[in-house]
Amino acid sequence: MEQTRARAESPTKFLLDETQLPRRWYNIAPDLPSAPQPVLHPGTGQPVGPDDLAPLFPMELIGQEVSEEPEIAIPDEVLDLYSLWRPTPLYRAHRLEQAIGTRSRIFYKYEGVSPPGSHKPNTAVAQAHYNKKEGRTRLATETGAGQWGSALSFACRLIGLECKVYMVRISYEQKPARRSMIKAWGAEIVPSPSEDTESGRAILAEQPDSPGSLGIAISEAVEDAAGRDDTAYSLGSVLNHVLLHQTVIGQEALAQMELAGAFPDVVIGCVGGGSNFAGLAFPFLREKIAGREIDVLACEPAACPTLTRGVFAYDFGDTSKLTPLVPMHTLGHDFVPAPIHAGGLRYHGVAPLISQLVRDGLVRAEAYLQNDVFASAVVFAGSEGILPAPEAAHAIHGALQVAHAADDEGKERTILFNLSGHGHFDLAAYDNYLAGNLEDVALDEDEMSRALHAIEGLPSPA
Ligand SMILES: Cc1ncc(COP(=O)(O)O)c(C=O)c1O
User: Fold this and answer.
1) Which of 110, 111, 120 to mutate to test the pocket of ligand 1 (most atoms within 8 A of CB)?
2) What's the DSSP call for residue 348?
3) Would you call 107 helix, strand, or coil by DSSP?
4) Ligand 1 center to residue 373 CA distance, Å?
5) Which residue's CA is minimally distant from atom 12 of ligand 1?
6) Residues near 176 by Cβ (< 8 Å), separated by ≥ 6?
7) What is the pLDDT of residue 247?
8) H or E element: which one contains 26?
9) Residue (of 1, 12, 225) closest to 105 by Cα position
10) Is the pTM of this model over 0.85?
């Protein structure tokens, strides 16, 4: 009885109903303290224009990429599809707090309730919508962990488009169930590097057993889309419009924190290309830029430490240099990260918007080893019950680090992190961890210097 009463006074879930779904995406670009630097054409060194991007993306998305509007209305069809899983729940992690004995309050926003199991469909349905509206019938994309490929095949199926997915080979092998899910939604899927594109064939000729990387898979998908009029390219992270679509997460979380009568001192997310982190953090950064004190923490793997050890430079978004030059933190476009289990965090770059925020000191970053991350994932699963995706477990680990540090200092903090997806297709990774077979990989200096040679001679950002 005592416990029930205590719970009623301090609920576990903070829920919004469908009428409270955000109607607009939040665009952080006009609020940034320093203007974002332009994306450049690699041939001319000049900023790319809409015509350069038109073979790959629909005009509405190109418009969103460079928009200075503070908010952009969400189309009705997208809202309708969002209502299948949104608004997502916000939890107070009472049991986790007890398990680690912290004085801090920990909250998490749970994006794993979407049909494919992560935050990725927030942009997948929007991208499928605009492509369909502008007459494309097929989308080509890459996927790392399989979450993005699942999300896009789900969105294409519901909206009525064909879909081809190039899945990073190591994940293709580690996660056969993700493949099945992608096929069940009607998409075609091949391991990357593949024989289906010139980029793939060139890499296989040099390294027949390449584990693949997001950079390589992006090259294949871009080449596929550029070669066919009916096909557009769809990217699951990094680009401004992708981050924009994810801001429904943070807008909901702001309303839910208010329901909880709290406001976070610390906002945390894991970063691959940066979309789930941006989705949660950008609406809070709007408050920070307006003067509110918030510590915003980006968590990445030590095997792919783009924000903590990469350089801010112009670089290609893909390995075969088919994309424009993007101003971002990078480890070099031909860097192939070690095959850690957080496949979705194995990307050589990070979104330009996040890179700029790190440069401006509004966001800080930390890098973690995978055994430490899995240890935190298991503590979380053992207290909150949800088995997190290895990517999302980086944010959990970050939250636990912050809580422990606050306890050591005798402080109480309110911590909010994004639980970007569940780990139901990552059980082989958990098996490996539990059997003590996970290798800790921190990127070594020599490999980092080697990989950074790839950006020599490219333009430098201001
Ligand atoms: C569950 C989950 N979280 C996070 C990420 C990282 O991507 P992003 O940084 O774009 O959110 C991925 C990527 O596949 C993912 O599947």
Assistant:
1) 120
2) S
3) strand
4) 15
5) 344
6) none
7) 99
8) strand 24-26
9) 12
10) yes
* Protein residue with least CA distance to atom 6, ligand 1: 272
Query: Which tokens go with 314?
Result: 């112009």
- Does an H or E element contain 429, and which? helix 427-434
pLDDT one-digit tens code per residue, 155-174: 999 999 999 999 999 889 98
- Say which residue the tokens 């503590």 belong to: 379
List pocket residues of ligand 1, CB cut-off 6 Å: 118, 144-145, 147-148, 237, 270-277, 344-345, 389, 391-392, 420-421
Q: Rounded to whole angstroms, how far apart are CA atoms 262 and 44?
A: 50
Determine the residue of 171, 246, 270, 353 to mutate for testing ligand 1's pocket, defined as the one with the most ligand atoms within 8 A of the Cβ atom.
270
Confidence of residue 229 (pLDDT cuts 50, 70, 90): very high
Tokens of 129: 């919508």
Helix (H) or strand (E) holding 258: helix 248-259
Q: Would you state the structure tokens that stand for residue 126, as one six-digit string?
A: 């929007």
User: 344 CA to middle of ligand 1, Å?
Assistant: 5
Q: Cα(413)–Cα(202) distance, rounded to whole angstroms?
A: 51
CA 291 – CA 219 distance, rounded (Å): 41
